Amino acid sequence: MSEDDRIAVVGLSCRVPGADDAPTLWRNLLSGVDSVRRSPAGEGAPGGPDWVPAFGRLDDLDGFDADLFGYAAEAAALLDPQHRLFLEVAWHALEDAAIDPDRDPAQIGVFAGCGPNRYLHHHLLGNPALAPAAGTLAEDWDDALTGSGCDYLPTRTAFALGLSGPAVAVQTACSTSLVAVCQAGQSLLDYRCDVAIAGGAAVVSTRQAGYRLRPGGLLATDGMCRPYDAAATGQVFGNGAGAVVLKRLADARADGDHVYAVLAGWAVNNDGADRPGFTVPGVSGQAAVLAEALASVGWDAADVGYLEGHGTGTPVGDAIEVDALARVRRGARAPLLLGSVKGNLGNLDAAAGVISLIKAVYAVRSGQVPGTAHFTAAHGDVDLAAAGAEVDAESRPWAGQRRAGVSSFGLGGTNAHVLVEPAPAPDAPDRDGASGPVVLGLSAGSPAGLRDLARRLAVRLAEGDLAVADVAHTLAVGRRRLAYRDAVRCADAGEAVTRLSALAAGEPVDGDEAVRAWRAGADLPVPLGRRVPLPGYPFRRTRHWIEARR
Question: Averaged over 5-16, what is the pLDDT?
Fold first, then answer.
């Protein structure tokens, strides 16, 4: 299988319960942190014996950097929070990939989806306070419609970020964002675009307080999501968003990109009618999608050492998933580690699949497999032995070949499965002719943002694992040119930390002619180096929110 048949993950970003970025999420997962909050949210929590005060909350859900994305305050307040979240994670994912769409000639596509717009229904429609702004959807129909519709999530992203590739909405319930990844990968292989952003966003609840139990429902009676576990009683939901940036592997290597991992193959199908009901998953369909993905790259089931499962904590759904896995792995001798990020975060609906993928990418890259929160022993209907699988509550080193599978199954039967393998060893950086100090050029939308960016970069450089030439190269090719600029000239990481810390403190920092030219609006020369992940833009979120009608 050549590099032309594989897809590189060159950037990623997320906002999930307990983490505003992917590195924080990964640290939380390795530490076994459960980010679902289990206390009443305070205002408006209904209470009562059937009320469960548990939810995967997002801090600052009502905040948005409207100025950065070009929205007036009134328009931002009408915008679906799912759209706001995805704009932010898409921006950060492109930064993580060191791609500036304003100067990169590549055609960049967007494949993404979100859940139903609960903000529209619970906060906007019928709210008399909106009459002057939105005319109850009569006087300002276009803003209300495009600000609320799931169809407009990817096209809004393309417009806001200046992307000219395909912008395609994907809607398959909980499998939405992983199906989007598969669509993006295929578009790249078909040369419909050169770079693709794929992912999803979900605001399952704007109140973020909890849920009311229904007899025979799918929600956990104790507020705990326990994938595959004997004590599992159902799922817990949460809000979140995530995105990955994909390129053909050969192009990524030629461009000197930082490659997190490689998508070797994937498959998407539907359960069809071979299941008891529309909302009940099908064993044969899930088994088929796993088998199809393996066949697409010529792997045997035993080649996969870790599976990031769908694992919602519903006993019936988890049992069906493991039954399907057993059919595919029948006769496989190699052990399989099985886990699910939903134990830590809850089910993030349309964003769930891409968050599972981000977890698997980090696992493949690092050689560590996080434990599955709340697991003690398998549920009686979940036959792990038949699948040759085991679930561990504790994080562990990954011994053996590091190949992973990621499953995401949508309500309604659309299944997706993606296979992940390690990135090839990077080529040695081309530093011929590179000598002397470099200029680190920063820009932001406000003076406070510029100081914050300098502080973040100083903290990152203090970790000591980045070459300043690579940092300078990344800043030169992979960051937007915004209104407020500053720069420092430095010869090594230690000097960079000192000068950036001074910038962060608001102290004047001397600069040579190149630094002064950058401050005045000129471009900097691009130094030799390669692209490396750096801290993302510090969004200046202010509150843009219409209160729910009572």
Answer: 97
Q: Which two tokens stand for residue 405?
A: 């599978």
Nearest partner of 388 among 332, 311, 340, judged by Cα: 332
Assess contact for 521 and 529: CB atoms under 8 A. no
| DSSP type of residue 174 | G
Strands 542-543 and 63-64: antiparallel
Q: CA–CA separation, 373 vs 226, rounded Å?
A: 7
Q: How far apart are CA 45 and CA 51, in angstroms?
A: 9
**What token pair was written down for 482?**
């915004």
Structure token digits, residue 492: 């090594």
Q: How far apart are CA 156 and CA 112, in angstroms?
A: 11
Q: How far apart are CA 199 and CA 395, in angstroms?
A: 26
Residue range 205-263, pLDDT digits in tens: 999 999 999 988 899 999 999 999 999 999 999 999 999 999 999 999 999 999 999 99
| Average pLDDT of the chain to the nearest whole number | 92
User: Cα–Cα distance between 172 and 349 in angstroms, integer?
Assistant: 10
Question: Does residue 140 surpass a pLDDT of 60?
Answer: no
Distance CA 11, CA 196 (A): 10
Q: Are strands 336-339 and 389-390 parallel, antiparallel or unpaired?
A: parallel
Under the banding of pLDDT at 50, 70 and 90, the label for residue 549 is confident
Q: State the pLDDT confidence band at 273, using cuts at 50, 70 and 90.
A: very high
417-431 pLDDT, tens digit each = 999 999 999 877 665
Residue 165 CA neighbour count, 13 Å, CB half: 23
DSSP letters for 407-471: EEE-TTSEEEEEEEEEPPPPPPP--TT--S-EEEEEEESSHHHHHHHHHHHHHHHTTS---HHHH
Cα–Cα distances in Å, from 178 out to 84, 406, 535? 20, 9, 25
Instruction: Answer yes or no: is pLDDT of 47 > 90.
Output: no
Secondary structure in 3-state letters for 245-284: EEEEHHHHHHCCCCCCEEEEEEEEEECCCCCCCCCCCCHH
Give CA separation, 223 vs 162, 209, 217, in Å: 42, 11, 13
Q: Could you give the C-alpha distances from 252 to 23, 365, 515, in angstroms and in order?
A: 22, 17, 30
The token pair at 68 is 């950065």
Binned at pLDDT 50, 70 and 90, residue 434 comes out as: low
CA-closest candidate to residue 183, choices 106, 267, 105: 267
Confidence of residue 43 (pLDDT cuts 50, 70, 90): very low
Please name the residue that has the structure tokens 């030799």: 528
In one-letter notation, the amino acid at residue 282 is G
Compute, in degrees rounded to 10, the torsion defined by CA atoms 82, 85, 86, 91.
Answer: 160
139 conformational bin, left if phi > 0, alpha if psi -120 to 50, beta if neither: alpha
Q: Average of pLDDT values for 151-174?
A: 97
The radius of gyration computed from the CA coordinates of the chain, to the nearest angstrom, equals 23
The answer to whether the CB of 297 falls within 8 A of the CB of 260 is: no
| Distance between CA atoms of residues 149 and 300, nearest Å | 41
d(CA 252, CA 81) in angstroms, rounded, equals 32
pTM (whole model) above 0.85: yes
- Would you say 52 and 346 are in contact if contact means Cβ atoms under 8 Å apart? no
